[in-house]
Design goal:
By secondary structure, this protein is mostly beta strands. The protein is built from ten helices and 43 strands. β12 and β13 form a beta hairpin.
């Protein structure tokens, strides 16, 4: 760790505390995370270049300048009053202020709710001219076009959760710790939201569970809450909330001075954003409730353009484990937080296949984050605040397994959405820049400029292609992605940029491919998932645990079904240019029957023709797909029926 750089950061944060202590823009400027475990840089990093920009569909209102910029002239002229959007549309909105986290939950009765904190820094918005209450807003989202605020949570930690508002969707628990940019006494609030999410039931309020509060993590099973504070004497605590009415602190440790953190699905790994990078820890003692639990470091990592690491979370893409990580704000080259600094950490994808040697494989960033852009954008509204400006703050995914997309709040650049189906070559697919507003709604007297202030961790309602987030200057938004952006078939079709060499290449498979008894193109029966992803020559448009779907140039798909070991058992194509025994999609049934020797009815509407290990699926009078199967599927209609169900055929 660069100790000179750390000292420089601390001096800057101390100065910011004096200048901005009464402004909501002081939101995280006073973080003073320090690294107990030394972060190790990866041997090689991907290029620090802007992620390919979104291609906007009809109905969009594209941003007026370089990627991520809202020029001062656009605001002054009034042209920005409608905002800017690309492949995203507003479904509904609520309120005039926002904070750091947005969560979604559907309860046992199928009520759908949103939760978001309303203050960037309590208690300044208590002075707000908007007359909005402080606390955590609870929205009934049964009609996303018309969110209804059913109540506001006003217990101590919910009044000032800072970045700690957290949720267990599995258990239906909402929790927070008293927090601010430096530190508040660490009382926690715990609510049960499982019965009626519209009216959370308080179980604990202001319970003294940890020395100080700022951020937090939550075990997915909802039994352990991890309040954290990078500025305090203890980096984080593990609090047993299995009995939510009587929280019990299991351990408070300074082994890792944690900013934000997440926990693996099994509760045994912690992923900590720390002062100079990332630390992965073993939380097994905590998860198993061992006496005197120990938290052990597994590995650490830093990167060359690090600023203030905010949060990291595990995801699985193509069956391979990764983390996404996001840094907040900007710094000068000396490592001090500064307005419009030349260095912007932004976000990145990290390969953790070997958790003892994590490595950055791509960067997620905008053109406004590049050093060569910083001078030109310095006069824009919001750019002169060291805790606002053109930088990043939080990211989130629809689900951890095969997320497809990641949405990031990028402060003055609004909400940005990226396709991460190829984690080494992310691309931007959508964005939303809200009509610029001022922070007068939050009561802040120091900086009052019309801009976006997107700080919140977003949430997804993937079944409706929705993304929810809040803007500190203008409140809560429910947005809907275009179908193409959501499914990875938007206009931004070429992947390039910051990824490592040897990636997947073109987005779609060629329209002419050879179909043999063992493969469609390079997608081979019997191959493991990882081998298919490496050899296919394209990035899957959709992946699940048991299937892969690739698009084909000029239409159609190549689909592969996988068994429990991750091996391909059936691969088929619905593209007209892919022929098996001279048969392809659209061929007349009678012609196909002359080429194939036998037929099996797998469903009333679907007949599969066989010739050896080649198959052709027929519906009505036409062939719908052709492909290849393993020996078991060549003999068993039942096994083939199961595979076709996986593929949606």
């Amino acid at each position: 760790m660069n100790t000179h750089k750390t000292r420089a950061r601390r001096a800057t944060w101390a100065a910011l505390a004096a200048v901005l202590s009464c402004a909501p823009s002081a939101a995280s400027a006073l973080d003073t995370p320090q690294l107990t475990v030394r972060a190790k840089a990866a041997a090689a990093e991907p290029a620090i270049v802007a992620t390919p920009q979104a291609g906007c569909e009809a109905g969009s209102r594209p941003e007026p300048s370089i990627q991520g910029r809202l020029p001062k002239s656009e605001v002054d002229s009034g042209r920005a009053d409608r905002g800017y959007w690309c492949n995203l549309s507003v479904v509904g909105r609520s309120g005039n202020t926002g904070g750091f986290r947005v969560h979604r939950y559907v309860d046992k009765q199928r009520h759908e709710c949103a939760y978001y904190d309303t203050a960037l820094l309590f208690p300044t918005n208590a002075l707000s001219l908007s007359a909005e209450p402080t606390g955590v807003a609870v929205l009934d989202m049964s009609n996303p076009a018309k969110p209804v605020r059913t109540t506001t949570l006003l217990t101590p930690a919910m009044q000032t959760p800072h970045e700690s508002l957290n949720i267990s969707v599995k258990r239906g628990v909402l929790a927070a710790v008293l927090g601010n940019p430096a530190q508040y006494p660490g009382g926690i609030d715990v609510y049960d939201i499982s019965n009626d999410c519209r009216y959370p039931e308080v179980k604990a309020a202001g319970f003294p569970a940890t020395p100080f509060g700022h951020e937090s993590g939550m075990a997915p099973d909802g039994n352990t809450f991890y309040p954290s504070s990078p500025a305090g004497p203890y980096g984080f605590s593990a609090v047993d909330i299995s009995n939510p009415m009587l929280p019990r602190t299991l351990v408070s440790t300074n082994s890792v001075n944690t900013h934000g953190m997440s926990v693996s699905d099994d509760g045994r790994r912690g992923y900590h954003a720390v002062g100079n990078g990332l630390v992965i820890t073993d939380l097994s003692d905590v998860q198993e409730r061992k006496p005197n639990p120990q938290v052990r470091s597994i590995s650490s990592l830093t990167w060359s353009n690090v600023t203030i690491p905010q949060y990291a979370e595990p995801v699985t893409i193509g069956g391979k484990p990764y983390l996404f990580e996001v840094d907040e704000y900007s710094e000068n080259e000396g490592g001090s937080a500064t307005a419009n600094g030349s260095r912007v950490g932004a976000a990145r994808m990290i390969d953790i296949s070997d958790e003892r040697a994590p490595r950055v494989v791509s960067n997620i960033r905008l053109q406004v984050h590049q050093p060569e852009s910083r001078a030109a954008i310095g006069g824009d509204y919001g750019a002169q605040s060291p805790v606002q400006g053109y930088a990043a703050h939080y990211c989130a995914v629809p689900q951890r397994s095969e997320p497809g997309l990641i949405a990031c709040s990028m402060i003055a650049s609004g909400l940005r959405v990226f396709d991460i189906r190829d984690p080494e070559r992310p691309v931007e697919v959508a964005y939303f820049m809200a009509p610029p507003s001022t922070i007068s709604a939050t009561g802040g007297p120091t900086i009052d400029e019309r801009s976006n202030w997107a700080m919140s961790q977003p949430a997804f309602a993937p079944e409706r292609r929705e993304v929810w987030y809040s803007d500190g200057n203008s409140g809560f938004y429910a947005l809907r992605l275009s179908e193409a952006a959501f499914n990875g078939t938007s206009a931004n079709a070429q992947r390039s940029g910051s990824g490592t060499a040897g990636g997947a290449g073109s987005r779609c498979l060629p329209r002419r491919l050879k179909v043999t008894s063992r493969a469609v193109g390079r997608v081979r029966v019997g191959a493991k998932r990882a081998a298919v992803l490496k050899a296919a020559g394209a990035v899957p448009k959709r992946t699940t645990k048991r299937s892969l779907r690739f698009c084909v140039e000029r239409g159609g798909s190549v689909l592969a079904a996988l068994d429990r070991r991750g091996r391909v058992t059936t691969v088929v194509s619905t593209a007209k240019g892919h022929r098996a025994k001279a048969i392809a999609r659209g061929t007349a049934r009678k012609s196909a029957e002359r080429r194939f020797k036998r037929s099996v009815k797998v469903r009333p509407s679907l007949v599969v023709l066989y010739r050896g290990r080649n198959i052709a699926g027929v519906k009505g009078r036409r062939v719908r797909f052709v492909g290849a199967v393993d020996r078991k599927r060549a003999r068993s209609a039942r096994a083939l029926r199961s595979d076709l169900r996986k593929l949606g055929l």
